[in-house]
Specification:
Distance between the termini: 101 Å
Order of helices and strands: HHHEEHHHHHHH
CATH superfamily of the largest domain: Cytochrome c-like domain
Strand order of the largest sheet: 1-2
Strand content: under 5%
Number of domains: 2
Largest sheet: 2 strands, antiparallel
Radius of gyration: 36 Å
Number of helices: 10
Helix content: 40-55%
CATH architecture of the largest domain: Orthogonal Bundle
CATH class of the largest domain: Mainly Alpha
Bound molecules: heme C
């Protein structure tokens, strides 16, 4: 009986030895996996039970009963400081700024044209006369950009209208970044000039060719 047991256990020992050897042969990978599994199992529970609130859970700790804390007054997220008032509001104190806050070149105008055609032309149409496709389908008609009041309006007024909306017009603060809003303002100014330019405003132009205004509205082209 004892010798049988001894034989059995020695067989077992050699089997275990074989398994160990083959594991060794398979490289240390197996051991590594086992060890990392053990580690994962070890911290699993801690990771699950972190002392934190789920979003919008109530709390008895704070007097207002909410676990969500309001930002400290005056908090500004990194990189979002809007210190340059004229640039970000179109206003200098109470007054609309009259000039664009940066130099306008062809790149700015191109950008403004592109953004204008995307965001404004659906209502104001591509010439700014206020007869865009959305208006043709029944939306309230905006005033033409070519009326005297808007031709003489300060640049900051246009910036403000884009930023905060105006009457029936929604605001485009979220869709259009401040610099692009200014680029649009520059382009609207260009549209206004284009509709009120005299032949003599075109340097080196042939006045006989410029005398006749184009009959087609640019709306028909697209
Ligand atoms: C959904 C249609 C719509 C879009 C898009 C739109 N507008 Fe308007 N806009 C209007 C309407 C309508 C009015 C007139 C609002 C009123 O008087 O109640 C208006 C008025 C204006 C005015 C005149 C404000 C004044 O002093 O009378 C300006 C300037 C203007 N929009 C600029 C823009 C610019 C720039 C864009 C593009 C960023 C734009 N709008 C996009 C509908 C639109």
């Amino acid at each position: 009986m004892t010798s049988q047991l001894a034989a059995r256990s020695s067989r077992l020992v050699s089997r275990v030895g074989a398994v160990a050897r083959s594991a060794k042969a398979a490289g240390s990978k197996v051991l590594l996996v086992l060890a990392s599994l053990a580690l994962v199992a070890g911290c699993r529970q801690d990771m699950h039970d972190q002392p934190r609130y789920k979003a919008l859970r109530p709390s008895t700790f704070f007097a207002d009963g909410s676990s969500a804390r309001p930002l400290v007054e005056g908090t500004i997220a990194r990189g979002t400081l809007q210190g340059d008032e004229p640039f970000f509001t179109g206003k200098d104190g109470k007054d609309d700024v009259t000039e664009l806050p940066f130099a306008v070149d062809e790149t700015v105008l191109d950008r403004g044209q592109e953004r204008y055609n995307i965001y404004c032309s659906p209502c104001h149409d591509r010439t700014g006369s206020g007869n865009g496709m959305v208006v043709q389908r029944g939306y309230r008609q905006p005033p033409s950009f070519h009326i005297d009041r808007l031709r003489t309006a300060a640049a900051g007024h246009f910036f403000d209208v884009i930023t905060n909306g105006f009457g029936a017009m929604p605001d485009y603060k979220a869709q259009i970044a401040p610099r692009d809003r200014w680029a649009i303002v520059a382009y609207v100014r260009a549209l206004q000039l284009a509709q009120h330019a005299a032949a003599s405003d075109v340097p080196g132009g042939d006045p006989t060719k410029l005398a006749k205004p184009a009959a087609e509205g640019s709306e028909k082209k697209h």
